Amino acid sequence: MGPVVDGQEHEGWVVPLFADGAQGAGTSSARGVLIAHRPDEGPCNGDRVRLTYRDGSTAEGLWQDGTLLRGDGIVHAHTSGQVRHEVIDQAEEWRPDAAVVGWAAGCTCGWRGTPWTRVPPELADPAARRLATAGLWAELEAADENRVRQEWHRHIAGWQALEEVEAAAARQAAAARALDEAVHAALAAGASEADIGRVTGMTGRSATERLSARD
User: Fold this and answer.
1) pLDDT grade, residue 4 (50/70/90)?
2) Cα-trace Rg, the chain
3) Do residues 48 and 62 touch, judged by C-beta distance below 8 A?
4) Conformation bin of residue 26: beta by default, left when phi > 0, alpha when psi is -120 to 50
5) Spatial separation of the C-alpha atoms in residues 82 and 47, rounded to whole Å
6) Where is pLDDT greater, at 70 or 38?
7) Calpha distance 68→59 (Å, rounded)
């Protein structure tokens, strides 16, 4: 899990790639690799879709080759009469592990790293961005997965550094408040400003000016 910037989470993973440009969603099983639907693709075959028309009426059904198939047998073509179409429920699409042609670092913000090519084990060469799997599955060995994920770590490095600056500033502010409270308690207990300056490393005058600024 990475940083949250302007409400956007930045979580990274290794994205399986396919020859036609499709990308894995980060989920795999005995059925293969689950394909991610990108927002700019529009409805895919098998998706449950709602069409909204200019008069406010709607139609829901399964999307198939540019048409909406309703349960009552009525077919709605994708025409200019619709104001918008909305995917209500995406159909799952699974592809075999053998169809994976490479990998790329991915982030939930939509960023993708430079692709790595899948090759047979004897042709593997990480320096040339060529990786192989140990078996028929599309899962990379831990060392190769880390190589791919390093690009994502570089992608979020600036935001992580800002998070550390923000956290350090918060700690500094909290420490300053704690010091002020301790100083006021010491004064109330009868300590002199000179004594406070000595234990805090400040001169008596600096301690006085600090206390005056905080009051």
Assistant:
1) low
2) 29
3) yes
4) left
5) 18
6) 70
7) 8
pLDDT top residue among 88 and 208: 88
DSSP string, the chain: ---EETTEE--EEEEEEETTS-BEEEEEETTEEEEPPPGGG---TT-EEEEEETTS-EEEEEEETTEEE-TTS-EEE--TTEEEEEEEEPPP-EE-GGGEEEEEEEETTS-B---EEE--GGG-BGGGTEE--SSSSSPPPHHHHHHHHHHHHHHHHHHHHHHHHHHHHHHHHHHHHHHHHHHHHHHHTT--HHHHHHHHT--HHHHHHHHHHH-
Position 134 pLDDT exceeds 80: yes
Of 113, 95, 96, nearest to 104 (Cα)?
Answer: 113
Query: Most distant CA pair in the chain: distance in Å?
Result: 90
Which tokens hold the place of 97?
Answer: 């592990």
Per DSSP bridges, beta strands 130-131 and 116-118 are parallel
Cβ–Cβ contacts within 10 Å for residue 19, how many?
9
* CA distance linking residue 45 with residue 122, whole number of Å: 38
Angle at 42 (CA atoms; ends 39, 48), nearest 5 degrees: 105
Tokens of 138: 């599309």
The single-letter code of the amino acid at 73 is G
